[in-house]
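Notes continue from the previous slide.

Worked example: a multi-chain complex. Inputs as given:
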Amino acid sequence: MSSVKHPMPEQPAHERRRNFSEVELGYDEATAQAEAARCLQCKTAPCRQGCPVEINIPAFIKHIREGSYLEAIEEIKTKNNLPAVCGRVCPQEDQCEKLCVLAKKGQPVGIGRLERFAADFARNRPPRKTAPPSDEPAGKVAVIGGGPAGLTVAGDLARLGYKVTIFEALHAPGGVLMYGIPEFRLPKDIVRTEIEELKQMGVDIVVNAIIGKTFTIDELLQEEGYDAVFIGTGAGLPHFMDIPGENLNGVYSANEFLTRVNLMKAYRFPQSGTPVHIGRRVAVVGAGNVAMDAARTSLRLGADTVYIVYRRSEEEMPARQEELEHAKEEGVEFRLLTNPVGILGNEQGWVKGLECIRMELGEPDASGRRKPVPVPNSNFILDVDTVIMAIGQGPNPLVQQTTPGLAVDKRGNIIADESGKTSKEGVFAGGDIVTGAATVILAMGAGKKAAASIHEYIQNKRKRDRN
Amino acid sequence: MYIIKEKRELSQGVKLFVMDAPLIAKKCRPGQFVILRIDEDGERIPLTIADFDRKAGTITLIFQEVGNTTRQLGMLNVGDSLLDLAGPLGTATEIEKFGTVICVGGGIGVAPLYPIARAYKEAGNTVISIIGARNSALLILEQEMAAVSDELIITTDDGSKGRKGLVIDPLQEILVQKTVDRVMAIGPVIMMKSVAKVTRPHNVHTLVSLNPIMVDGTGMCGGCRVSVGNKNKFACVDGPEFDAHLVDFDGLMARQRMYHDYERGSKRCGGDCACHQ
């Protein structure tokens, strides 16, 4: 048996760096079966410990090996409503695959690739039979925010017989899956299909509904008859560095840049009404997955040179290895141990350069990573005309500001326990709004726990009310 | 779907829609705005709410046809609908009895000013309004403003109506003559900058309502950031109203020009991207 994963076919780097089609092309049946055959089907299944949504991994892989692909997807969907999404964007190398027994001596089973295969195979097939909504719903739940956490809560509770309504502030549900992650990594049709399945399960989605403005949480609970509310509003407030020149034209937050391109389809301007400005030379500040997305999107919009500017070294980069490698293959240039100190503008107010200082690594800091310290008198100017800040996001404050009795920490994140309970009765929260910016799958894991705890809360309340 | 119940042309290129939007009408307060999108390919644009009728479940939007989206919007008629209308967004105007309040509106800025002036009046303030335009044909909401003001002064650049000159001319005179407790100014950035300059020596608390470029309108993109007192603020969630004496108007003006070349159609997306293949 091979000690390495079957490679996933992908578009060649020189082609894909200029188009928005998906980079990775997925396994065919033969490859999927061969990869599935690598799974030892161990009884202990350590991989399952690594899955935030507790998928029975060996079971679905066994179905694939036997060619029962629809059974495979059924198995996954008992735990995960968004398998085509997760198969693409989960950091499996830090989760299920990290714990795979094969990883001790070689490469783990390509669990993510197999999940993706099963999900893609099942796409556009007749939807599985869902239980018809019972006459008497188990309860009524409002979900605030249609991102990964909220979609998971909605799916799990709908399956338990609840009437769920998702309130989404933007014009399309999906959250970061729609506005943040680019088409070439996660085609939007796939997101729409998975959300469509939730609707078929009876979940209502109300778009353009800004909770805190159009409705408040208290109104939902007291006037609109919801038994419980889940808040999954995410990390939506972009950080800037607070350096001179950040308001020059040609400076974007990664959120704005990616929203224009992904949600608003600016790459099709002028057919789509939203423009995006892209210069010839782009600096993306930061080295997480969002930074890689912004850099690779810049190339696809036609930039000649794209830099990742990062104050630490490659070892400390928070991006997934896979994203980093894809970015390198496509020609993104890395300026490591480099920190911006100011953005220079021309007389018309446009970016004409990024002043940086070189850094070196000192003692470990609170995060355990070696702290970057500036090298005196090492300033230099990077010749760029566009700067994209991808240094993280804070919590969106709209819900917290208008919900009395909801405790938040000093950063503005909602305080919730393991099960998603907040300080306010009937109000649960999970995902980035609680933890700060993290990953799609961690938000989904939090959503899963919250759904279980909402179920328990409502059923207990019903029991109490009856007695 | 959000249906257009009524359409009027207020002046050349300035149109008024009454929109069916019961949820927004129920909640909105003076000073707040909405984000709209006409169709699937449309961009999201912010428009300040010019009026609302809670009973009828409608809001009034007034816009000037200055860009691709507002031109397309102007071609819609009664019975047509918008795909998306989200709101109310932004922080509402602080309404209290302050004493004497001057409301200054320039051009299309009179539209969002009107419900604010009315609210000041209803709160018991003495409201002096100064509204201006390039010429008489471009003046809007004259009667409405007169109805909610103790005194209405009109200025036009060419003298075709009211006083010839700028809105800051009568403002200057009033500030010298009497005690003014608050000034609210809405209009072109250059006008708001001038108002700030005129009121600063008189130490009158002055507010301006900003309309920078926005995408989501909920704090997510940061495109609407503006420097206020040397700190960056997001107009969509921290504003749209700010202390006029602290706003970096020059920076705001530069940012508003960011997509001018795209609006004129002279600039495309780089040339090598997906839309050119």
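Summary box: The first strand of chain B starts at residue 2 and ends at 11. The first helix of chain B runs from residue 22 to 27.
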